[in-house]
Amino acid sequence: MAEQDxxxxxxxxxxxxxxxxxSGTAVVxxxxxxxxxFEPHRPRVSDLSPEKEKQNERRVAxxxxxxxxxxxxxIVAYIAIPFEAGDPASVQLSNMLIGLGIALxxxxxxxxxxxxxxxxxANEHAVEQRHPVRGTEETRARxxxxxxxxxxxxxxxxxxxxxNSLIGALAIFPLPAVVLFRGLAPDExxxxxxxxxxxDEGVRLTRDPDGTPIRAAxxxxxxxxxxxxxxxxxxxxxxxxKAKAAVLLMRLKPEDLTVSTGREDWNYQGIVAYSKxxxxxxxxxxxxxxxxxxxxxxxxQSQFDIKREAEVIFGPAKRPLPQLxxxxxxxxxxxxxxxxxxxxxxxxxxxxx
Length: 353
What we know:
By secondary structure, the protein is of the alpha+beta class. It has two domains: 45-125 and 136-182; 190-336, Rieske Iron-sulfur Protein. The protein is 36% helix and 11% strand. α3 (50-80) packs antiparallel against α4 (88-119). The longest helix is centred in the N-terminal third of the chain and has 32 residues, at 88-119. The protein is elongated and about 95 Å long.
């Protein structure tokens, strides 16, 4: 039937088949497409007019100067514009101006570099033949020639205005980040700040976040409570204080606890309270395993054994979680005996006990 159809259409079947060798392998034609080469070079306006070349040079330098202005402006906005945590409008204004300054700084360098490459650097087409990489003297000498050629074509050494403005922009560009990160550091001695929290003698332990006081009878064996000090929700520095005073409360069988000398009255009938702030870098230690009585920090997997006073048993943390001494008041509510006896949080602070 196929032969009849071919005959009817007048088309030879052999014309649709690839020629084969005796072994049945298809023969591929050796004809190659001729390399058309590069299109004729079209010079740019700046290549033909020295005046346009100077104009583009000034534009590039202007973009780099704009980058400097943006970086400095973001620093000025951060320092000069006050904002209060409870005033969203002031926070938004400060963040907007800081963001605009940093954006101008980044875009100035980026647009300046692109404009420099498009309008002033050499735009001749070139072909480099691929070859094995060898560490011979000839290869190194050729590399030096390439760097020198790149310097010549880019005009980095010759165009002093662009070079100096780029160096200035790159030097000033990181300053906003330095200033912003420096602002995270406390003005006071961090040791003193982390040594004292809202916990004090008689302060009730309350549930996080509603502030409901906790009775000792409500804490069953195996349970865990996220705890904040009473009055925290009314504090004007709620977040800062919570970052230091957050506590995890658990109850174990009293006979399962290993209590060191001087800490005999720090727990109440097997109820223990430990800082929730990891001693590695300050992440919240919020995962409690009931069967093993281990606390896990989800950030870097440090593990603490509650049976042995939150001793580190795994991970990068170097010291146990600080323990909060607790007892009960006349109404049966859990209260603190005192503040923590050591600074809470990461161990990288200089600690003087």
